[in-house]
Amino acid sequence: MTTIAVIGAGAWGTALSQVLTFSGNDVRLWSYEQEAADSINQAHENRLYLPTVPLHPKLRASTDMEWALKDAKVVISVSPSQVVRRVMANAKPFISPDALIVSASKGIEVHSLMLMNEVLEDVLGAHWGDRIAALSGPSFARETALGMPTALSLAMKNPDHSEELQKILSGKLFRVYTLTDVIGVELGGSLKNVMALAAGITDGLGFGYNSRAALITRGVAEMGRLGAKMGADPLTFLGLSGLGDLVLTCTGDLSRNRMVGMRLGQGEKLKDILASMNTVAEGVKTCDSAKELAVKLEVEMPIISKVWQVLHEEKCPRAAVEELMGRPMRREFWDLEKAGEDG
Prior knowledge:
Layout: E1 3-7, H1 11-22, E2 26-30, H2 34-43, E3 60-62, H3 65-69, E4 74-77, H4 84-91, E5 100-103, H5 116-124, E6 132-136, H6 141-145, E7 150-155, H7 159-169, E8 174-179, H8 182-204, H9 209-230, H10 240-251, H11 256-265, H12 270-275, H13 282-297, H14 302-312, H15 317-325, H16 334-342
Helix pairs in contact: 4-5, 8-9, 8-10, 8-11, 8-13, 9-10, 9-16, 13-14, 14-15
């Protein structure tokens, strides 16, 4: 049994806590909201973020950060990406010096343009670098919490720590694969949310499977192009944290980002959509960061650019799709080849 602190009691944090508790670990779940903590402890259900999913009776939650982190061997950071810095700065005094840190949030910090593992290293200190892992892959929280088979990627610089975490995190129906490409895994988990917005827009416009398949495939190309510039292995984007997560979020009805995109495609305004939600659609903020990264690194990312225009300039979704289709003709793999030459 391993003592594990999960920092963030949203849907994904709750689902991870559920899986790890069923595997026999001592899991302490930190919640920002007292309402969520009370619901988990008293009703064994997170009625705020994961309603109707029965939770293991041994899973405990609290708003007390020190309680959650006391003697924790593994600390999983799973707050919304744009508050990870603040939350983990509050957690820092209580983290054991020999703990292993897992980044399970998906996003790119606005303004700093840091990936989540970089944010954690910045907050905790450079000496934590080889003790920080990135966990990502195709995983709807509800299905994971209900015990449906799930496979994820775990990326970490230190292979010894990586193997240790693999054993701790893996369960009967929860399989973890290891690799060393932290940048690729972080980028895949972040950018797929923007691509899911785009897929939702095409669905909202009434386009079919052809359109969705084309978008997913070209989405992989864009992700790989930016990843190559940043030092990631393009092959990572064909794995669980890239193509796997992209297929899930671009096709699944449980995808918050796809649902936001669908409503945009149907003519709703972004502010009205976000006001109606009690959960975070990470792709909205990540789109800002991704566009800024693309400009900074001089990487062509037309899908990201058009989604940004729909989000922030109220560009007509149909016009955005038509402009994407009307771009100059080229060879299919030219962009990745050029990225490799440049990077």
